[in-house]
Amino acid sequence: MEIYLKRAFDDAAAADGYRVLVDRLWPRGVAKQDAAIDAWPKAIAPSDELRQRFHAGELDWADFRRRYLTDLKACREELRDLLTSAGRGPLTLVFASKDEHHNNAVVVRQYLRMLKA
What we know:
Layout: E1 3-7, E2 18-21, H1 32-35, H2 48-55, H3 61-72, H4 76-86, E3 91-95, H5 104-116
Parallel strand pairs: 1-3, 2-3
Helix pairs in contact: 3-5
């Protein structure tokens, strides 16, 4: 199974497969009907405190990633359910961040890959 990352502001495509929004807040300016989101498990999103501290620069990427991976352990069953729901098709983690390399979807994908192994 492939796990892709895609910004919420990019058009949905059939090749995305099962689309999961991994942010706690709905992305501004994105209509729900256009987003084609299959699941929005808010429990797997970073806590408001963690997200705010990272965006404020109080945590660097390594600290954010380490803390978020620890938090995701409590959501193991929900994350396994996402893998099951995606089946054998692709899974696309949808996020709103402008930074495509340092965001919560990157960490969720890393954790899902550990679960699959």
